[in-house]
Write a structure and sequence with these properties.
Oligomer: single chain
Number of domains: 1
Helix content: 25-40%
Number of strands: 11
CATH architecture: Alpha-Beta Barrel
Structural class: alpha/beta
Distance between the termini: 5 Å
Bound molecules: zinc ion
Number of helices: 8
Length: 280
């Protein structure tokens, strides 16, 4: 299969380099296509998202890279857009008609602290534990269920092209075992969310970042969820969530192998301007 990656962060958000550096590495590795998905601006201060006034420069710089690599590598302009109910999401008017080729929709924030700041499911573990205590009364099951509820709301209300890192909240189990991923209630929440993805006809991202950053033992989502996704006929796309050019194909070979073992014959790639299946 031709390698491609549609989840990557540039120096416009919390990535390390300009778009052109990732493109150069993608071309060196013989990629068929490469997409940029810097964190979309948020309507409140945030360390890792793009500043609102940087969006036009981001789009212009990706456009410049597209021209630079024309005929050598297909490049695509995307954003990883947060869904926060009533605040922002993939259908935020700010991100329409600006020339995006696609978007990845992700839930990072689940509830707020008393001072109004959002609680991140993939932030530092101590901060996660504090939010769990202060926002969700230490009820991990409730917090995790609300996380999956938010993803389902995004799918229903503001469907993105690609659903980002579905079960990323499991990375918090790495330091303190907080919940059992084999528990009935947990699998029910994942399954209900996958059914929503299937019904909406969206593409599910298989994100390898937890593996090469050693924050998870499996991709987001993991083997069990992907087997369910396959059973439900959900198309998948393989992405690395790169924040550095050296990460653009991290764990791709192993993950492609896992997808084949699960039964996936295709992955979806954005090629020649359309999402299409290519053999994995
Ligand atoms: Zn993300
Ligand atoms: Zn990301």
């Amino acid at each position: 299969m031709p390698w491609a990656n549609y989840h990557s962060h540039t120096y416009f958000c919390d990535g390390k380099y300009p778009p052109g550096h990732y493109a150069a590495e993608a071309r060196r590795q013989g990629f068929a296509a490469y997409g940029f998905s810097s964190h979309a601006p948020l309507p409140f201060p945030c360390q890792w998202s793009m500043k609102p006034d940087a969006l036009p420069r981001y789009m212009a710089e990706v456009q410049k890279a597209k021209q630079r690599y024309q005929g050598e590598l297909q490049l695509y302009a995307g954003l990883e857009i947060d869904y926060i109910a009533g605040v922002t999401g993939p259908r935020n008017p700010l991100f329409q008609d600006i020339g995006l080729d696609y978007c990845v929709g992700s839930v990072h924030f689940v509830g707020r602290f008393a001072d109004g700041t959002g609680w991140e499911i993939d932030g530092p573990h101590e901060l996660f534990l504090r939010g769990l205590r202060e926002i969700h009364g230490n009820n991990i099951r409730r917090a995790v269920e609300v996380y999956y509820e938010q993803i389902r709301r995004m799918i229903a209300e503001e469907p993105p092209d690609v659903v980002g890192h579905l079960d990323k909240i499991k990375m918090q189990n790495r330091h303190t075992p907080l919940f059992d991923e084999n528990a009935d209630w947990y699998q029910a929440a994942v399954l209900e969310t996958l059914q929503a993805v299937a019904k909406a006809g969206l593409i599910l991202e298989v994100n390898t970042r937890g593996l090469y950053k050693k924050r998870a033992d499996e991709t987001y989502p993991g083997h069990w969820a992907l087997a369910q996704a396959h059973r439900l006929g959900i198309p998948v796309t393989l992405s690395s969530d790169a924040h550095h050019p050296r990460e653009i194909s991290g764990f791709f070979a192993q993950t492609a192998q896992m997808l084949r073992e699960i039964g996936y014959q295709n992955v979806h790639v954005l090629l020649d301007g359309t999402w299409q299946a290519v053999s994995v």
